[in-house]
Hints:
744 residues, alpha+beta, 11 helices
Amino acid sequence: MKLPFLLLFFLLAVKISAQESGRDFLTSDIAQFESRSAGLRVNAAGLRVVASNNFDVKYYRCEWEVDPAVNHIKGSVTSHFVMSTAGNSITLDLSNALTVSAVQQRGSNVAFVHAGDALTITLQNPLAPGTKDSVTVSYEGPPPAANGAFVVTTHGPSATPVLWTLSEPYGSRDWWPCKNGLDDKADSLDVYITHPATYKAASNGLLQSETAVAGSKTLTHWKHRYAIASYLVAIAVTNYIVLDNSVLIGGTNVPFKTYCYPESQVTFQNGALNALNAMVQFSNLFGDYPFKNEKYGHVQFGWGGGMEHQTCSFMVNMGETLIAHELGHQWFGDKVTCASWQDIWLNEGFATHLASIYTEAKYPANTKTARTNEINTITSLPGGSVWVDNVNDVNRIFSNRLSYLKGSHLLYMLRWILGDATFFAAVNNYINDPALAYGYATSANLKAHLETVSGKDLTYFFDQWFTGEGYPSYQVEWYPTGNSVQVKLNQTQSHASVGFFRLPVPLLFRNAGTNQQKLVVFENTTNGQFFVDNLGFGATEVIFDPDVWLITRNNTITKTSGPLPVVFSQFSVECRGNNARLSWATTEEVNADYFEILGSKDARNWNAMGTVPAIGNSKETNEYFFDVETALNQGYYRIREYDTDGSTQETRIVAAQCGGVESLKIYPNPATDSFTLESSLKGTFPGKAPLKGLLLYNLKGNHFVLEPIAEHGRTRTFDARSLAPGLYFVVPGNGQVISKLWKR
Ligand SMILES: [Zn+2]
């Protein structure tokens, strides 16, 4: 996609101006300008093409006569094709602003109808599928100005006329008859341009000849022998200075041709050197420059940006981001073209990413800031998918925020998840897949190559990041324990379409005093996940995603005041017969090892009574029990939880006195004059007077205090004569009824 010039200084403005290459583009603002420009060129109706799909274009021979001083084109275009379904007509796209004088097939005129920007040609005979044939359309006229596809204007101090074309996405039909859709590349192309002899004409492929012809004109012949989409065919004519460079790519010396205005010669010569360096870099990453048997080059034009015309990017200036973006398109957009507008990120996300690869390598100190600025743009709204959900909305298709920047940062995240070696190997396979190279591709094609090389199912990733909307915000809790660190990762999502973003989360732990640091990557697969890592030093600070790989926003990092807790949701004790049963539950465990049961007779001095293994790491509610033997009954209890790293935490204290009072014997029962209480407790229970605080309740709730039994196993006899006949309850101080007494 054409990349417009911005009136903004890039971070590298100082370096760039020193090179006299012009202002560079601020990557984070590209989308806004590109979508605006695309909107000018593609209205809703413009998204439709009308060429028939009953034929497969093989070759275009384009013969044009132009003068940059005049908005006019005259010429003939011969389309070679193979019928794909039987029929006696084919339809090409061609603007009604142009007048067709004749259509010929095999040297004879044939009938045609030119209406609705469609040129329907009636063939001499019905053609069977697989039949090769060709038609030649002769036409002329003033191309419509509305779409800016064919522009005549001036440049420079002398207001020299200049002509350029810019056809993406559906402007080709404004100046030549073709198949204008995203579904049929011609296998090759010849361009013959007749123009005033004082000028030079640039176009796709290799320059074959510049021949003087009558009328002080020159016939310039360009020949291109790679598959090409119609929107990537372009011409430009003015008083160009032609500069020649070359670069060795894969053993081939690739010519680099610069067509620039005389007043821009120094700038464009310097810019060519940047392009050559980028071409070497991209060839190393993605395979040789796709058109290395012909050339690459820059052609200066006046539209406010750039456009990746095949083998000859049209450039408003020599901003380095622009150079790298348009060159990147030669692989992503030109060699492999998105098969539908829903997949525009395969062009724009990649071109944006390649520009970042170039600038990050050349200006590494700016990397974090540049990535952060882009992510801030991506996350400036809570929703939006890279997948184009409305192909009738041009602004959506060319959304800088989503198709360019978020697309580019999906590639960052794939690099982070898969590792660069795997990522680049997979993308190499994608860009060089014989089924895709020099043709069209979908996001599914890319995904398949990524999965094949990585061995990973990336459905979740594409669900969350390609069709899903929004981004995660992380709430990181951490606590250093010695040389280790505990981490808990919570996540919220900006958009309801994704319930959880599964990512490897990088945290950089540092010790400010010793300057030790360690980057730890946590494979975060569930929300609220707990981790522990042995850093080898005590961390004093944490930095989230220090190299800015992830699309996130509003992250928080909290150093907790104590070990990340096992959350006890319940702890109680009940008497079961003579035993005490402790029960507790946890709702979160991180690195829990085991629970130690502590008992005490005074709630101050604690004895270990046993252990229970912990689940370990869990977000579920887990219930635990521990039965305290009667003989070990302590009265006070608490649970001490041990983490795997030895850190501990304890519950609150619960109290229950079981067994001793329940074993109370009463006799005789019913009683008349007296009754005897006998404690049957065994063992010693210092600190506890078992039957201290015994009360005798009648049914009216009146109570009588009984004298305590001083020692376990002893008896005490009480005078019952003063008690009214009836039922009494023997209740110890803790309020639990333990026995009944009948008074006659
Ligand atoms: Zn682009």
